[in-house]
Specification:
Layout: H1 2-15, H2 27-49, H3 61-68, H4 77-102, H5 109-131
Helix pairs in contact: 1-4, 2-4, 2-5, 4-5
Amino acid sequence: MALAALIVIDIIRVWSASAGQPPNDNSAFVYVATAVGAFVGGFVAVGFGIKPQQTQVAESRARRNVRSLGFLHMFGPKELIGSAYVIVYLVLGVVAVATWIAHPNEITGLVKNLALTFVGLLIPIARAYLMG
């Protein structure tokens, strides 16, 4: 979650940057943060792809997929942490893409890389969720 805070700070820096003047980022930080962000995104994609156990109760595909992520059926620490990662990753991914669209000349490497990995992982996430 510390990475999420750093990404939020970087997004704020982009939105408050002067036109055509992107904030400077430390290259090593961008590489490590991008790798960790893609790693978390991979877990989110895999989480959407895991098929939950079949239940006797008829339920919609959306409810079954959300249940497989831990949102509805159990609220232990593991499920809450997993749910938090999913929500934070999806929200930050959408915000990163929106930031890149709104401020293409002020974008930082970290925000751009998050947007790219988010869009790349959105395809398997959507496929797993819709086909699940």
